[in-house]
Design brief:
With 323 residues, the chain is an all-alpha fold. The chain is built from 14 helices and no strands. The chain has a single domain, classed as Na+/H+ antiporter like fold, CATH 1.20.1530.20. The C terminus is likely disordered.
Amino acid sequence: MFESLQALDTVVIDFNTKSQIMLNFAIAFIMFGVALELKIEHFTGLFKNPKAPIVGAISQFVMMPLLTVGLTLLLKDYITMTVGLGMILVASCPGGNISNFMCSLAKGNVALSVSLTAVSDLGALILTPFNFAFWGNIFVSVYNASQTGDLVQPLYIDPIHVFITIFWILGVPLVLGLFVNNKFPAFTSKIIIWMKRASILIFLAILAIIFIKNFDLFLKHIKYIFLIVLVHNMLAFLMGYNFARLFKLSKRDRKTVSIETGIQNSGLALALLFNPNIFDPQIAIGGMTFIAAWWGAWHIVSGLTLSLYWGGFKLNKAEQENL
């Protein structure tokens, strides 16, 4: 396993500048669509009933990275440094763009889910670069100490470039979406369903482009990447649910916190990885890229499966119209 992942680390993923620009615009479009569901009340409501949103935010931005660095250290003898950093990068990202839809299927607290989306997207401007740098350095230090040969050189990531990237592809679309939703509610109600559908299709198209261009590499290494992402994602769902239970949240809220913790914006992770101002294209980060890309595909499958299970495999008429 280690030798296979080590070979993957040396791979330079085929993803050119044009593809990078398309990826950034796609993520920004998706975030604009997410923001169309947000209202100012989702922010102000956090102060009226803060317990569940605070628990959810802590689960996502504190417990998820902590769980992940613990898992990477447990697996340090079986994974490479960049695979571990890829797991930490995904864990440092905000919730995924389809978490609200999955929460609806699961009969969770959709209002809480939308509120957590608002909090996580804003918090990501600061917490994503902070968490990746903080937990990533801890992992690299311990990983290096466990090596018997030459030390692995840590990757230096400029947090300013990370912030700027997140600001443009998350922050700006979020503000624009809030503005359109609150100023033009009638127009928003007409396009929101189509934006949801288009967002999912665009994200799947991004993943398809990455996998098709690197299909041979994907087939060669998927059995190990699949297992790592499977375990990581499963633990994220379990941790989110039980962390919410620890604070005696209702079952609806526990399901919501679990989904928000287990559904990560891996598209943002890919946008950061393919940004030459953040990660030098000549540095071997194949392990990080494939972890982020496969997470993006897998959490759709796992999230929908879990949501349908919690929802009793039955959709009411309103939910069917949102598909």
